[in-house]
């Protein structure tokens, strides 16, 4: 289990993004309604459905890549899928951070930073040869 840290980080990211994607997919109207209010006073106010769809796709891609990355690490010690899962996770979190900062939701932005730390750690660990 030489890759246990990477595996645990990928599981963390997979749970985070697959659950969030599931929530957006199956509770689309509730999420859209809340986000329209959240971004009502920002330049994104007319782009909320498109932004939500974009984040949904990125979260699902991130989560799936992290799951495949875990399997790849366990089966062949390969790091390609896990690395891309971690990178997609970071990009997704940066987009969420940008939205929270734009909406002046600084507490929400702080929460995203907490998720960003393990994601960037995964990128670092999975980028080693």
UniProtKB/TrEMBL annotation:
Swiss-Prot/TrEMBL keywords: Membrane, Transmembrane, Transmembrane helix
Entry's localization field: Membrane
Principal location listed in the UniProt entry: membrane
Family matches, as Pfam families: DoxX
GO CC field: membrane
Keyword Thylakoid applies: no
Transmembrane segments: 51-74, 81-100, 112-128
Membrane topology note: Multi-pass membrane protein
UniProt cross-references to InterPro entries, sorted A to Z: DoxX
Origin superkingdom: Bacteria
Protein name per the record: DoxX protein
């Amino acid at each position: 289990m030489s890759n246990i840290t990477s595996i645990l980080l990928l599981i963390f990211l997979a749970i985070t993004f697959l659950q969030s994607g599931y929530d957006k997919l199956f509770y689309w109207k509730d999420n859209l309604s809340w986000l329209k209010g959240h971004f009502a006073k920002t330049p994104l106010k007319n782009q909320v459905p498109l932004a939500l769809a974009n984040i949904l796709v990125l979260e699902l891609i991130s989560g799936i890549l992290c799951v495949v990355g875990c399997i790849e690490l366990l089966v062949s010690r390969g790091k390609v899928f896990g690395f891309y899962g971690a990178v997609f996770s970071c990009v997704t979190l940066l987009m969420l951070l940008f939205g929270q900062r734009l909406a002046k939701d600084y507490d929400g932005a702080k929460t995203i930073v907490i998720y960003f730390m393990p994601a960037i750690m995964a990128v670092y660990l999975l980028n080693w040869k």
